[in-house]
């Protein structure tokens, strides 16, 4: 089981790394549009309840009037998103039977994606001008979550 988990985490990290530049560009634009009222930046890692390998990485802003805050970065909130397009999974991530998993797929997704986000955050120039940031796994997924970035 540990070998399966390690192989999956390595494969997923490679897929995420292939999308790192696009995610960094999206994040940089979002950070340039942050409303002054933003109190915290949150990176949400959102796997589904049925752990099949799909997930999304979404930027959330915290502060007064959440709708207005998040509307300011609309179009630049999704850093990575696995979904079905024309009957095929895009991007092509490893998929699982949600009822027969060799390990906790959602924990592995959140932990691997959190490491990827930390690498991206470390390359962002404007982060000194930003409010505090953290990563969280939806529904408590991921060991050591939430994790502070700044």
Relevant terms:
alpha+beta, 7 strands, five-stranded mixed beta sheet, two-stranded antiparallel sheet, 150 residues
Number of structurally distinct domains: 1
Which strands sit side by side, in order, in the main sheet?
3-2-1-6-7
Major pleated sheet: 5 strands, mixed
Helicity range: 25-40%
* Overall pLDDT confidence: 94
E-strand count: 7
Weakly predicted, low-confidence segments? none
The structural class is alpha+beta
Give a quick precis of the structure:
The protein is α+β, with helices and mostly antiparallel strands.
List the helices and strands and how they pair.
Blueprint lengths: L1 H17 L1 H13 L7 E7 L9 E7 L3 H7 L5 E4 L1 E3 L2 E3 L14 H19 L9 E5 L9 E2 L2
Parallel strand pairs: 1-6
Antiparallel strand pairs: 1-2, 2-3, 4-5, 6-7
Helix pairs in contact: 1-4
Structure description:
The chain is an alpha+beta fold. The chain has one domain. The protein is 37% helix and 21% strand. The protein is built from four helices and seven strands, in the order H-H-E-E-H-E-E-E-H-E-E. The strands form two sheets. A five-stranded mixed beta sheet has the order 3-2-1-6-7. The protein has a two-stranded antiparallel sheet with strand order 4-5. A hairpin with a 2-residue loop joins strand 4 and strand 5.
